Batch of 4 targets.
Target 1
Amino acid sequence: DIVMTQSPLYLPVTPGESASISCRSSQSLLHSLGKIWLDWHVQKPGQSPQLLIHSASKRASGVPDRFSGSESGTEFTLKISRVEAEDVGIYYCMQGLQTPYTFGQGTKLEIK
Amino acid sequence: EVQLVESGGGLVQPGGSLRLSCAASGFAFKTYWMHWVRRAPGKGLEWVSRINEDGTYTTYANFVEGRFTISRDNARNTLFLQMNSLRVEDTAVYYCVRDLGGQGGYWGQGSLVTVSS
């Protein structure tokens, strides 16, 4: 199974500042057809999870441009600029290259 | 508006069975792969199973061990998860997810399954 490792697991942020979450995969997530099978999902308090980023760097429909994803080999980063109170939640990276799909442990973002 | 509405969860004794349903609306259900993902209390997200567009191909997580069966009825726009031989460790909120890993990823609101004596 592909192992996904996130850091940090807890991320307190001051509103208006930026935040970064890292995710490392145990093997390449690049498919032969060129797609990178890495998603970022967030589960806000009291809600079901929602897709933020797919293919490592492509924002899902309706996601603000404050959210961006990047990749370098097996290292992936979710950056949130100008953090707002509504961004509180648990952020997960996920690989969909092969089954079983696997998630990172989750990063809990809280507002200071 | 896209909607995925799960139902069928509840309290069941160890060794018992439950059938989850997920009613889809607002999109062309028959054109998407569908998945089940769960979140146990205090734990993270865990992928359970997937099914292709016409229901002819399915995949399961190792921990399922032949106990769960995913299926779909495209005429009724509904996804199912039949869960047998349930264990205490299967206690979780089960989410129906459209196109997990793709640009159309969308989660349902979840259905709580509690396995306890």
Target 2
Amino acid sequence: DSGVTQTPKHLITATGQRVTLRCSPRSGDLSVYWYQQSLDQGLQFLIQYYNGEERAKGNILERFSAQQFPDLHSELNLSSLELGDSALYFCASSIGTGLTGELFFGEGSRLTVL
Amino acid sequence: SQQGEEDPQALSIQEGENATMNCSYKTSINNLQWYRQNSGRGLVHLILIRSNEREKHSGRLRVTLDTSKKSSSLLITASRAADTASYFCATDGYSSASKIIFGSGTRLSIRP
């Protein structure tokens, strides 16, 4: 158990809909990272927050947004969903930024868009 | 890929043999880490190597880093069936440490 909790584990929805994925980082970790992994692909970096502030952005679509709350949990909002958004979405947390320490990954939220 | 490529994409070896995976990246880095992913699960950290290091060992794992070639390799010795998984390298950019980029991964299968 990594200590990172992601909900929901599975989500099935229709095109055009909006969903919210939630991540609770490991106790004491200030950084949260979001990644998208399509079927049998690598991880695409979406966005990173540190102590409530956005620190880095990857190839995140404008239809996607995220935030980190004062209690350090984070939410990833996906709107106007398309079939191609079907993927496994991972949250990872770490104490600081960068790779001086390891990232702890949740088990992911599997999104299926029909 | 945003940052790194790994090769081979897939590797199948006999149990007991050694497995070598390679990772290349595009920009200068501070640190490089290797992670393992069992099918559909969250990634698990294996080992960290800093940009000023050339080689690290951890149990059956050996990692090398060549910053001049912007590449790293992961060697797993005396492979076991339980090593079957996908392996990814991750890098943090020298100019943007917050952006942690993963390679495309190598799918390793160990034949009993």
Target 3
Amino acid sequence: DTAVSQTPKYLVTQMGNDKSIKCEQNLGHDTMYWYKQDSKKFLKIMFSYNNKELIINETVPNRFSPKSPDKAHLNLHINSLELGDSAVYFCASSQQGLTGGYTFGSGTRLTVV
Amino acid sequence: GENVEQHPSTLSVQEGDSAVIKCTYSDSASNYFPWYKQELGKRPQLIIDIRSNVGEKKDQRIAVTLNKTAKHFSLHITETQPEDSAVYFCAATPREGGADGLTFGKGTHLIIQP
């Protein structure tokens, strides 16, 4: 069983479109995250969310918005896609106080053309 | 916020030799320091982590050391093998599992020469 799963794995879309990436975790973790990995491999946090708080990295454009229907899911919506949004997006989850750290999904490679 | 610096950006070693990757962090409140390995096209995977109440931790060929006073931590890989070739990331957070998430270094591309 995949602990953190993301769909789709690849996403190619035109500028100006709106798209969503889905993420689900079956680990029972409290907190979920979205990270962006750019072409230089730099991993940067975009959002973290648990049932109590949403923390938004201040550098993330408001075209990006997380949506969490329940504790096991954190989807990423992106409006008005731009060329610079092309990257690999990783979902992750964690449980405070437990060993094992943060578990990452397999990533979604987004290409905006 | 936290800032993590990682060096070197690329490291090439002969198979069987040791590799050392170093990181520094800025936030004295950080208390959890994981290391991730990312192979090409794959997800980052946790290989070892250390908490601020421990100075050193070892797991077979991999070890991590932490100097809280100096705010730096290092990854040591001994007897390197071809399958160790990957990008390695250090990270830090003030709350393990907390909503702050991880702040990553920029990664080290480790190349194991046969």
Target 4
Amino acid sequence: NAGVTQTPKFQVLKTGQSMTLQCAQDMNHNSMYWYRQDPGMGLRLIYYSASEGTTDKGEVPNGYNVSRLNKREFSLRLESAAPSQTSVYFCASSSQGQPQHFGDGTRLSIL
Amino acid sequence: QQQVKQSPQSLIVQKGGISIINCAYENTAFDYFPWYQQFPGKGPALLIAIRPDVSEKKEGRFTISFNKSAKQFSLHIMDSQPGDSATYFCALGILTGGGNKLTFGTGTQLKVEL
């Protein structure tokens, strides 16, 4: 099915380990986004990419890096994972002026 | 800082009843106001959205009411069904040259009982 695909779906890391979360969309959208969702906090924007070749910080960028690999793919990297980064991570994409479409998330636990 | 306040945090409604979720925001620089629905284990999905020049929008059993002067908007689910049991998020949307940015409320867990 067309949409936003996130991998992996689940991951457990130890404190200090690094990891890259992958996101790919097949809707030819220009913009892509990374959010984290924590209980009672809603979704908070980590980074976004308005178009291929550009990335910008969102509300909670500390501890993360992103790469817009091409129009389809937007990855999120944790260089040195911390327990505070335990969360559910969502990737989304949109075309200009249109609503965002979300993937089903990556559930990340950091011990 | 939280720009949008959503209430209630949780809500239980009987089948056939009306579910009402409210959001209030703090400034006026937004282009649209969407509501997202999220089922367990899934990502949020757009349910309905309204622009600030419209006071009400209805799609099926779902209605957004928007009060620009009070900086409030609400989601009404008429004839609520067990299948509506989910978490609902309001959001504030800004349309930029290259996409759009969303600021989400903290969510409302709705349970519709038989």
